[in-house]
Amino acid sequence: MKKLIINADDLGLTPGVNRGILRAFQDGIVTSASLLVTGSAFEEAVALARQNPELDVGLHLTLVEERAVLGHEALPTLVDKNGRLPRTSGEFLRRAFLGRISWKEVEREITAQIARFQKTGLRLSHLDSHQHLHVFPPVFQIVRRLTRGMDNVWVRNPAGPWRKSPRVRMGRWMQRLGLNVTCLSARSLHGPRLPQMPDGMYGFEVSGCLTRSALEQIFRKIPDGLYELICHPGEDDAGTRTRYSHWGYRWAEELEALTAPETRVVLKEQGIALTSFALASEMSQGETV
């Protein structure tokens, strides 16, 4: 059976992104969202999530670009004097490989982000991260340790297809291969048992540019099992565009694809059942009883 969780990243980033995710859930096919507790529209996102309890909400960990929950005193090797995390994942990884980041500080910040989420009173259904840094092996060890005692919390498995699709740029495909290898490395580490993870993830190659055509192509490739599709719906408002134009995302185009009636038709044709992390937990519990 083909089961698919459609997860919108960056809830809490800006008001425009919040509105887009809510529309994609209410009028489209989004089943869950990942909350950025360091986002400028975090409190508004929490209020919207409380008004829509059927929307699964998880934590979108961030170790780059945004302002950390903790300050420079607590994270002297991780943030600058203004409390800003490294600008990009490349910068984070370079500093990590050179031994210039303290993993105790990384764990301290992840713990603080989990605590900020838990203070909202929302049910934590899953955990993932900005730029998928949670599967970088040292970070994955921390995430695995911190989520070990949590009930029914899923962790994103960003592994995806190894074969290159015709329309995917070579550079992006190489990034996909690197991410797949990183996932394999993280999951092969010895230590506490692995957290609950879907079978894989789709949408990486078209992240931020998920057109209706790309969405339909993905639906036709999904195999049997439980998979996650990542998306980034939003409104193309001036605030979001000004602050995050360097991402090159087309938020409104993704929103249109996720809410188009034709999209549901293709889902039905392909025999794909939409689900959520909460429903997946209920199913797995039922199978073990």
Molecular structure report:
- The protein is an alpha/beta fold and 289 residues long.
- The chain has one domain: Glycoside hydrolase/deacetylase (TIM Barrel, Alpha-Beta Barrel).
- 42% of the residues lie in helices and 15% in strands.
- Strands 1, 2, 3, 4, 5, 6, 7 and 8 form an 8-stranded parallel β-sheet that branches.
- Strand 4, helix 5 and strand 5 form a beta-alpha-beta unit.
- Helix 1 packs parallel to helix 9.
- The longest helix has 18 residues.
- The protein starts with a strand and ends with a helix.
Keywords:
globular; 15% strand; eight-stranded parallel β-sheet; 289 residues; alpha/beta; TIM Barrel
Q: Helicity, in percent?
A: 40-55%
> Helix- and strand-based class?
alpha/beta
How many strands, which pairing sense, and closed or not: the largest β-sheet? 8 strands, parallel
Ends apart, CA distance between termini? 20 Å
Number of helices: 11
The beta-strand count equals 8
Name of the level-1 CATH class: Alpha Beta
Low-confidence stretches: none
According to CATH, the homologous superfamily is Glycoside hydrolase/deacetylase
The coarse silhouette is: globular
The second-level CATH architecture is: Alpha-Beta Barrel
Q: From the alpha carbons, calculate the radius of gyration and give it in angstroms.
A: 18 Å
CATH fold label: TIM Barrel
User: How many distinct folded domains?
Assistant: 1
